[in-house]
Design brief:
about 60 residues; 1 helix
């Protein structure tokens, strides 16, 4: 096994950090796109909910 120079080792370490940061950024963009797509799907599936209370004698409707 050969010995790495200090300059080369610094380059290897820096390149590993850049590669890791690039990978994390790619994952975050992927997750963000999934969340945006889910929000678009949820808006299509949204339905109003109506709750009617009969406790007071006259029906009261609450919309959520």
């Amino acid at each position: 096994m050969y010995r790495r120079s200090r300059k080369y080792q610094e380059y290897v370490t820096q390149y590993a950090k850049v590669r890791t940061a690039r990978k994390e950024k790619r994952i975050m963009v992927f997750i963000l796109n999934i969340r945006l797509n889910c929000l678009k799907c949820l808006t299509k599936l949204h339905r109003p909910i109506k709750i009617t209370d009969y406790d007071t004698g006259t029906p009261v409707t609450h919309r959520i």
